[in-house]
Design a protein that fits this description.
Layout (H helix, E strand, L loop, with lengths): L2 H25 L9 E4 L2 E5 L5 E8 L6 E4 L3 E2 L2 E6 L1 E3 L3 E3 L2 E3 L5 E2 L4 H8 L3 E4 L2 E6 L14 E6 L5 E4 L2 E6 L6 E4 L2 E4 L21
Parallel strand pairs: 3-6, 3-9, 4-12, 11-14, 12-15
Antiparallel strand pairs: 1-2, 2-3, 5-6, 7-8, 10-13, 13-14, 16-17
Length: 206
């Protein structure tokens, strides 16, 4: 066998190996329809096909300031390893609050509210406390939301809520730690760049 044939055989083997790696990673997850997505105790998770791993996609927020997002270690027998995650071979997914309340105007989004109410629109930023448990060794990616309340305030303003995040972290977590509400890798690198503390409609810095 000449050198060209040997090179071609090695090159082909490498391509097949890489394809197998990517294919295996993609096939592990099922994100089509509701097959891989389930709501457990108010939180929405994506599960791998084996049912052994899950990451948080959304969580029920009651509009309160100081709401605590403290995930269990497991959901339906699967280990919860991430807050947000990835689709396929690397498309990022951010977890975000889900609001089911009759107090909210679900028809009016940020741009429309700003156009209609202008200076009378008051955007408040209640805090959601996020507890990063010991099992959260995947990504931590969060969006905020824009929520317009139906009722006006006493001074005639329309109130909208866009929560910010304050992090706490288990001392047993091998990847992250929290300080003064910010999340860091234990290597010392700042982690908050993966968190959108402001509304998801503001894509600056993405």
């Amino acid at each position: 066998m000449n050198r060209k044939c040997i090179f071609f055989a090695i090159f082909s083997a490498c391509i097949l190996l890489l394809a197998g790696c990517f294919g295996s990673g993609t096939a592990t997850w099922d994100f089509e329809g509701s097959k891989g997505y389930r709501v457990v105790d108010g939180n929405g998770y994506y599960f791998n096909k084996a049912g052994t791993k899950a990451f948080l996609n959304d969580f029920a927020w009651d509009l309160s300031d100081g709401f605590v997002l403290d995930l269990p270690e497991e959901a339906d027998g699967a280990e919860i390893f991430g807050i947000g995650g990835f689709f396929g071979t690397g498309v990022p997914v951010r977890a975000e609050p889900r609001v089911d309340s009759e107090l909210v105007d679900t028809e009016t989004w940020y741009e429309k509210a700003l156009e209609e109410y202008g200076d009378s629109l008051e955007i408040q930023s209640p805090t959601i406390r996020v507890v990063v448990g010991k099992n959260i060794t995947g990504v931590v990616r969060l969006y905020s939301v824009f929520v317009l309340l139906k009722e006006e305030s006493e001074d005639g303003h329309r109130i909208a809520l866009s929560p910010s995040y304050y992090f706490e972290c288990s001392e047993d977590n091998i990847k992250y730690y929290a300080k003064d509400g910010h999340l860091y890798y234990k290597t010392g690198e700042h982690k908050d760049e993966d968190v959108k503390p402001g509304p998801y409609w503001d894509e600056e810095g993405e």
